[in-house]
Amino acid sequence: MGDILSIFSTKENAGLTKNLAYAATAQGMGFVSSIVMSLVIPKVLGLENYAYWQMFTLYSSYTGFAALGVNDGIYLRLGGMRYGELDKSGLKAQLSVIGISQVTVGALCLATLLASGISGDRLLVFLVVIVYGLLANNFVCLGYVFQSVNLTQVSSLASFFNKVLFLPLLASFIVLDIDSYISVVVAFILCQLVAFAYLLVCARDVIRARCGSLSKAARTCAADVRAGAKVMVAYYADSLVVGFTRMLTDWHLGLAVFGKLSFSFSLINFALNFIGQFAMVAFPVLKRLGEEGKREKYLEIRSVLHCFLPAVYLGYAPVLLILGWWLPEYRESLAYLGLVLPVCVYSCKANILFSTYLKMSRDEGLLCAVNVATMVANAALSATAILGTGSVGAASVGIVASLAARDFAFERIMAGRYGEPYVRDCVLEAVISAVFMAASWFLAAWSVLPVAAALAAFWWVERGQAAPLARGLAVRLRRERGSEQQYG
């Protein structure tokens, strides 16, 4: 019983390793859940219903706009504090103000939707997007509170419940032969509700506290919005690099093409969410370090990502063969996957490294400017490709080109602070990505041969970085395993 109740504990874990273990375990199960969702939902729903499901996931991912960045402002303001140091009364008042504001925005969105003339399944999709947004924004706000005070195990477990509880519901749809997207959407929202209830239980000290001044809380929210708006814009600008291309595909190339393209992005999104947990765990810990400690960790993380992230390209061929057998109607999507897989590499590097460090130094404006510039550049490329030629493949290449340019810009900014050479590394990463994209497009599963050769050459060129890192990681893993055996 004690072990079960411990999941509701607000006691902070010491150090980074245990938090990473929580995040890895929770997100590992979420990763499995996401894989099942990506592979089973398109099989169960069929092309049209799956396209509507993807439409829901696309537009629901932008409901955070309604929070105006207050969540990010809270995260920045409370980052590095301890849970016991929080003003529980003031926080309860602020959460109340945020909840009221979200209901107000939801009502305005509902009125606008009903007056828009949209009908049929699209109307139904946007209605459930509004419902989901009300729940998700409050969930994210409370989750950010726990993340900012280094109680990342709480938000990790909430994510765990949200993802894993969906599996038995999905299994029941298969048994009962339910093939309607709206059933999947309702189940998805119910799982989000359970995860939010878990966060509320963990925040019981805040819920029980006497509510502070709502007017003061409103002023605090306004300050958090001013601080967090830039981070919010930076985040959604990053998301819209891909999102704008998907929207244009829906509007101009039809629901079927949109569903197929969205399938390829769904295969990399869960990987991005999984790897992005490192940034969630690392932020409060890194923020407590001195400047020299931050620099050392930056150089270490950068080297690991530079040397080992491109290895993900080796996974394309087996994925292509397995999914081509399992979902033959999505073969075209798998061709797009080869073009967009570098998005995973560049976005992981940006989220784990550059975004984390720019937030720590409170350079949200700079982060925002770079992401907005990337979004605008990709919007121009996507519009040219889709409106001009009707080519989703060309639009996918434009996404990768935009992200590669952003990576170069971030590297230049950080090199000005830490003095690390970057041009050679950026060129090598771009060459590896280009080789993979060309090989996957023209050779399909046979691309594994030139890609493996290119990676071998890359690691040989970078053996001065890669070999010591590999040895260091191996030693660290053996040490961690020995500690677990000693104290386990």
What does this entry show, briefly?
Helix content is 84%, strand content 0%. It is mostly helical and 488 residues long. The mean pLDDT is 84.
What does this structure look like?
The chain crosses the membrane at residues 20-41, 53-74, 95-118, 124-145, 157-176, 182-207, 227-249, 261-286, 307-327, 333-354, 430-461. One of its GO terms (cellular component) is plasma membrane. It is a multi-pass membrane protein. Its main location: membrane. With 488 residues, the chain is mainly α. The protein has 2 domains: 1-212, no CATH class; 229-481, no CATH class. Helices cover 84% and strands 0% of the residues. It has helices at 2-5, 17-60, 70-78, 88-115, 120-148, 152-164, 166-175, 181-202, 204-208, 214-253, 255-287, 291-308, 316-326, 331-360, 364-389, 392-418, 423-443, 448-461, 463-487. Helix 2 (17-60) runs antiparallel to helix 11.
The Cα radius of gyration reads: 23 Å
What composes the largest sheet?
none
The total count of helices amounts to: 19
The amount of helix comes to: over 70%
SSE layout:
Blueprint: H1 2-5, H2 17-60, H3 70-78, H4 88-115, H5 120-148, H6 152-164, H7 166-175, H8 181-202, H9 204-208, H10 214-253, H11 255-287, H12 291-308, H13 316-326, H14 331-360, H15 364-389, H16 392-418, H17 423-443, H18 448-461, H19 463-487
